[in-house]
Amino acid sequence: MTAGSPSDQGNVKRHNLHIGLPHRSPAIPSENRKPKTTPNAKPNPMSFPRLLSLMLLFAVGPAMASEAAGESVVLRWKWTANQEWLAEFTQTAVTDSTFGAKTLRLAVTSRWTQRWRVDSVDAQGAASITQSFTRIAVDIDMGMGNTLGFDSQRPIAGAGEPRRLADALQPLIGPTWKLVVSPRGEIMQIAPSAELSAASEQLQKNSVLQPLFGADGVVGPIRQAFVLLPEASVAPGGGWRATLPFKAAFGAGEIATDYKFEGLRSDGGIPMAAIASTSRVEAKTGAGEVAKGSELKDQKVAGMVLFDSQNGTLVDARQSQMLRTESRVRDIPLAVQLASDWTFTLRKESAPPTMPAKLSPP
Which of 156-165, 258-267, 324-333 is the most confident on average? Predict the structure, then answer.
């Protein structure tokens, strides 16, 4: 699930708990688009992936000590029909909104689990996957002792805001969506069930949760799970780029993500590809776009992925971001800064949870 970008209201987004860059869209649309890629592009160390996407500051552990220097590899997702996986996301986001001389802080921690079932794999290696949420937990700290929480695995009690929070999130548990993913990790299609579309539409009406999930609703966490792999084989130091359109309070444009292959590292005898990423938003107000008066002033987004190159699956991904916007409300300056981090792990449903090898910082 993606946190959102800062806006004039100081909303929180991780990723858009992903999350992603928020814009107003009432439901999850079916999609059929591929990100544009530029093969073998040199990574730009000052760039970053989508808003509310996010990253890591972790040291290298001893299990990651050996690296196959200079080895060129082909990285691909490898799916097997009827396999079932558990995807687990954790995201934290802190938004500081300074209005004149007063600063308000909003902190959100979210955790969610998805079940993935691989329905089929075609001759080209593209997988058709059915997904659903099995657990969602959110803790919100609004300062001055004001907190709000929800866990789909605990009884729902209380009225007022706790009940409204539960009413918005509980319908997400159970309904499915289907997606088609290429061996490179391109999401070629997302088709939500009617139940999930209805639940996502209600989510967008919740003033607390909408910025948390972003305009993509529950699609944000789905996108975060799939790193886009290079078209051809890649050697340590090699890079590639992916771009996606975005829409946010401060304008529309593209998010360019530069990936860098840092080499193979052994984790329990399994070759793990370490992939660093940096992203950058380039806002471009086009025809028909309305300026919102909010300007992106600073951005820092970086991430690291650990990819099992032998079995063709992501093991661990982490991202951190900082975004700062400025605007004026009734001629009073408003500055909003978002700092967020997320982690994502993927394991077979039959496998017990394990602590992944730590990743080096980007």
Answer: 258-267
Distance CA 144, CA 224 (A): 33
DSSP state of 237: T
266-277 b/e (C-beta count within 10 Å ≥ 16 → b): ebeeebbbbbbb
Secondary structure, 3-state, 103-150: EEEEEEEEEEEEEEEEEEECCCCCEEEEEEEEEEEEEEECCCCCEEEE
Three-class HEC string of 270-295: EEEEEEEEEEEEEECCCCCCCCCCCE
The answer on pLDDT for 26 being more than 60 is no
Alpha-carbon distance of 243 to 248, in angstroms, equals 16
* Torsion sign across C-alpha atoms 176, 182, 187, 191: negative
- What count of other Cβ atoms lies within 10 Å of the Cβ of residue 84? 12
pLDDT in tens, 162-186: 888 888 888 889 999 999 999 999 9
CA 182 to chain centroid: 18
Q: Distance between the two ends of the chain, CA-based, in angstroms?
A: 23
Angle at the Cα of 281 (from 343 to 312), degrees rounded to 5? 40
Beta bridge partners of 339: 94, 322
SS3 154: coil
pLDDT reading at 20 higher than 50 = no
Q: Is 224 helix (H, G, I), strand (E, B) or coil?
A: helix
d(CA 335, CA 10) in angstroms, rounded, equals: 8
Q: What was the pLDDT predicted at 152? A: 92
pTM (two decimals):
0.72
Return d(Cα 31, Cα 29) in angstroms, integer: 6
